[in-house]
Amino acid sequence: MKRQNLLPSVNASTEAEPTSDLDGVLRQLGNFGRYQTLQFALLCLYGCWFTAWQLMGIIFTASTPQNYHCTSPPGFSANETVPRQEPDSDGVAELERCKMFVVHDGIVTKNVTDCEYGWDYQMAQKDETTIVTDFDLICDYDLSGETVQSVLFGGVLVGAIISGQLSDIVGRKIIIHASLVGEAGVSLTVFVMYMEMFTPEMRGIAGGIGNIMWGIGVTLITPIAYLLPNWRHLQMTISLVCLIGIPFYWFIQESIRWLISRGRLEEAEQILQKIAKFNHISAPRKFLTSSKYVTEKMAQLEAPEEPCLTVETRDFADDDHGSLGETHVSRDTSDAKPEETKIVDFVEENDGINGHSDSAPTSQKFVNSVVYYGLSLNSVNLAGNKYLNIFLLCVVEIPCSIFVIIALKWCPRRWCQSISFLIAGVFCILTGCIPDKTDNGTDLGPLIVTAATLGKFSISFSFCLVFVYTSEWLPTIVRNAGVGGTSLCARAGGMVAPFLVYLSGVDRSLPLIIFGVISIIASGLTLFFPETLNRTMPTTITDAEKIARESSLCKIRLVL
Questions:
Q1: 555 or 208: which carries more pLDDT confidence?
Q2: What angle do CA 307, 312, 316 make, to 5 degrees?
Q3: What is d(CA 487, CA 112) in angstroms, rounded to the nearest whole number?
Q4: In sequence order, what DSSP letters do the residues of 390-402 get, joined into one string?
Q5: What is the pTM for the complete model shown?
Q6: How many CA atoms lie within 13 A of 74 on its CB side?
Q7: What angle do CA 141, 144, 148 make, to 5 degrees?
Q8: What is the pLDDT of residues 381-410, one digit of tens each?
Q9: Could you give all domains of the chain from N- to C-terminal order, each with its CATH number?
Q10: CA 456 – CA 4 distance, rounded (Å)
Q11: 262-297 per-position pLDDT tens digit
């Protein structure tokens, strides 16, 4: 007979520790059985595709054309009324973007003024428009396009705060559907929900398949944008399509782990029975059965204590399907004071020096977000066709995600994360340092795009991994809030990325070198984080601390 303690998480300061045999029950029910596969597919559809379209669509809806100049007065050409810039390294003098010669009484003077008749834009295809071209967000307003992109990620940041906290309080399911009006709640909560569906050995595969779905989603946005060159049509299409996710509310079930962590055993039992029936697996009368509820409040300073749930797991034989674990739950009161849990802080120990930091997963996500979205936004500045460049930088995420599945199955998370950061940093710097042409005039555009694509492959690998890594690290009762909290820095990185890309106007290589340097720094810092490969997903604060303590370089502490 196995025993564990389980505490109903009825508020933010209570712990919950369901039986570790829940993973055993899930294995017997089929990790990727018919029921789980259907749930997973529905979650990925609007948690990956719809989200990807909203986030990556901003590349097309708010991009700034590379070439534009003042519109000439009627009867004149641009060569007559627009001055030219200083010749570049190739001796080519482009038209001035924000100035024109004054035309007085039909005569072009040498005096220069601001554009009086608007601008002519050189777009990648006919009828293409963006927010920038519709509202002339250039010259004196040239930061407005980047501000629009940054505001999008600011909205995602707010959504991460709200949805992360509410999801741990009211449940994953209701927040997913309530968040259909806002991207952040969907993506974060969906990810946590489908990671909680599976056992440790299958979470890497589930996370990898989810990343493949994301890769397909970001790849599809390019042909959609090509077919809908008007930014208004594009934005309306990718927004209205989210409404098809509303009926999924009646098909998607609440997270079993979350229900158990909240002491809602009857609801968890109903879902387990439903899975068994749908997968055609013979099930016991009860997977989870409770004895009489015993409540005893004990004063601990100003907060009452919560009673513990004692879980007994008994094996029973099933003639057709082998042995399953039946879990009996009873209440027990303990004199131990519940741990205070709210914010995850990581304490790094190295060479005997203790440092207190809450930047372990957040630093990873910040760098991932800056480099990932920075490379994506900067793709419009690469040589060649904008649509082709963006498509290549997006489609590379599909094989990357397949590679992630393989790596998550056998490779240590910490080393995979560190190496992917390092490779991404090297290729970002190479992309920035390769000249457009050689001295003899050979076009190096394809080489630049190739280096950028390899950099995007590496940072996408890291981004895929960090979500799995973080969810494996955080305990159930604060997992969604924790993922949402660490994602604040990721969204802050997304807000910073457009302004770093703006620096390409000063020097094309500058944002890429910045991306490379911070990636290499993150590579070194990652080596101090704990390892989670093949470990049971922690339910309580104690479980999470144990994972960190077993790492020789760091430990974890969660405090109020």
A1: 208
A2: 155
A3: 48
A4: HHHHHHTHHHHHH
A5: 0.72
A6: 0
A7: 170
A8: 887 788 999 999 999 999 988 888 788 777
A9: 1-27+264-332 (no CATH), 31-62+147-254+343-559 (1.20.1250.20), 67-88+95-122 (no CATH)
A10: 44
A11: 888 888 888 888 888 888 888 777 776 543 322 332
